[in-house]
Design goal:
The protein is of the alpha/beta class and about 250 residues long. It has one domain: Alpha-Beta Barrel (TIM Barrel), CATH 3.20.20.70. Helices cover about 40% and strands about 15% of the residues. The protein has an 8-stranded parallel barrel, surrounded by 5 helices. Helix 1 runs parallel beside helix 2 and helix 5 crosses helix 7. The model has no long low-confidence stretch (mean pLDDT about 95). The structure holds 2-phosphoglycolic acid (PGA).
Length: about 250
Amino acid sequence: MLVVGNWKMNGTAAVNNQLLQAILADWSPLRCVDVAICPPFVYLPQVVEMLSEGPINVGGQSLNPRVNGAFTGEVSGEMLLDCGCRYVIVGHNERRRMQAETDLYVAEQFLAAQKNGLIPILCVGESEQAREAGQAFDAIAKQLKVVIDAAGLEAFSHAVVAYEPIWAVGTGKTATPDQAQEMHTFIRGQFGALGKNLVILYGGSVKASNAVSLFAESDIDGALLGGASLNAEDFIAICQSAEQVATGVTQ
Ligand code: PGA
């Protein structure tokens, strides 16, 4: 299982310090769950430093696929690795929509992440409209295909996929465990034999109260958290839910 917290554009040095102190103070070791936090770029050194002794990894929220050059405001894969990142999120729907990132651009980011030794967390998700029109599966297949065509199936043995229905991200509306499971099975099916070991996260209003029922689904391998990763108690509770489901032990 893997639980990733995406802080998005939240925090200050003082707020991050308080949040991480609170997480570390109540942390109990997890045997079956990897955990990562993706802070805004400017706070990567702070978060890496504070988490350096512990089991929590750090990731970037995006990257520019180019190596270096005149790309004002951008950050490369090499820079993220240099700062101590292990993961990087690519194709988050907020960036697809607000930064007009296309499927092809996301594929370039995926390739650049791997080239720089980072594990890409590839987000895919359908709009509410697509779901209502019965086109959710087509939308997801299309987003995946562009990256699979560019990187090859084999590349996904060092990558994570996150299913994030757009209508569920930051809205409080979570996909039901059945809806999520159905799509995760479909996603796994796009990868042939490699699908069996692919880590597929669910993201979209995951909370401490619904995490167990989502994690209990056989094709849900963890979560990508937005809002819930900004609260120490919720974040810890969700990581522990993943551990409980993974180990079959209820606390
Ligand atoms: P949310 O965000 O948990 O606040 O819905 C999830 C995400 O954007 O990854």
